[in-house]
Amino acid sequence: METTPRSLATEAVHAGREDLAGLGLHAAPLDLSTTYPSADSRAEAARIDEFAATGARLTGPPVYARLDNPTVARFEQALARLEGAESAVAFASGMAALSAVLLARSAAGLRHVVAVRPLYGCSDHLLDSGLLGTEVTWTDPAGVADAIRPDTGLVVVETPANPTLAEIDLRAVAHSCGTVPLLADNTFATPVLQRPLEQGARLVMHSATKYLGGHGDVMGGVVACDEDLARQLRKIRFATGGVLHPLAGYLLLRGLATLPVRVRAQSVTAAELAARLARDPRVGRVHYPRIGGAMVAFEVRDDPHAVISGVRLITPAVSLGSVDTLIQHPGSISHRIVAEDDRRGAGISEKLLRMSVGLEDVEDLWQDLDTALSARQPASAPQRASAGH
Ligand SMILES: *Cc1c(COP(=O)(O)O)cnc(C)c1O
Fold first, then answer.
1. In terms of CATH, what superfamily is 260-373?
2. How far is the C-alpha of 147 from the C-alpha of 309, rounded, in Å?
3. Active-site residues: which are they?
4. Which ligand 1 atom lies nearest to the CA of residue 119?
């Protein structure tokens, strides 16, 4: 139907929703069904055979919620469009998405993974522990070509990386990969700032829990890729069950609508805070990506834990990408599961703080940071009031 490519801002509010007007609807319907009536068992048998053989999306009504869901499919369609991908496959979380990719490659007999640190702490852990039967070789971007073996099924990178915001030249790494698919975790940049498929990556992964959802109230993951790989991922998802809940799919589709506006506004504030931090004598180093974004990482000269307990407006919490500002200490939380030596080797110092900048006013944020940077850690941390958990 489409004739000319539309801009990202337009796709963000229309992709995955083109059929709604024809259905007499405006908002996307939320379909919570776990099963669907099917009086014609012979026809269903043929459709299930077809899915088992190909992994192609079912045509016609869904059969069972682990196979397909129309609300989730809208989110997948929209995200694929934003990333410039043929297809996208959604999962229960970012980690479920990465697991599915690893399982799909292992199932093809390619159990070796080449990866570049830093990665998100649990991605590092999943690869390093070999929990899924994969074997990892860690290298730097320049070492990717040499690290590839005949049984290498995947190269994994993050750029800007969690938590140091280190950037990778995706085009150069993609070139080093040869025929091995490159997976780029695009959680931090989002398709608003970077579209890795255009630079040679074969798979783009998101923790949709972060910017795609954008409001800190939905967990999900998604992989955008070509339809061949998507078919493998759908087969894995069906067989292992890491599906995205339809309500999460609904919220993620809604989140995508404001993604470009949120990311751009948050980036302006983040860039300003990064500049002020860089001039501040209490701060040692500031990491802010060339491509911009709403994440700022910085090393304090004094006690990073005192800054965490000193913020009042900013929420001291792990995760990122929400409308409000969060700050955390990677060495204690997001990357705690990574061995200390590996953390240090990846440039994650004990003085490093990672901040996800929200939509608050820049002056209010700076005032809070300024106060927190001068805070001293109390002898014993104050007990926080608990809301029942
Ligand atoms: C949070 C995160 C993940 C994991 O996603 P979940 O949704 O928490 O499972 C993966 N990669 C990056 C870069 C992340 O920030």
1. Aspartate Aminotransferase, domain 1 (3.90.1150.10)
2. 42
3. 66, 120, 185, 210
4. 13
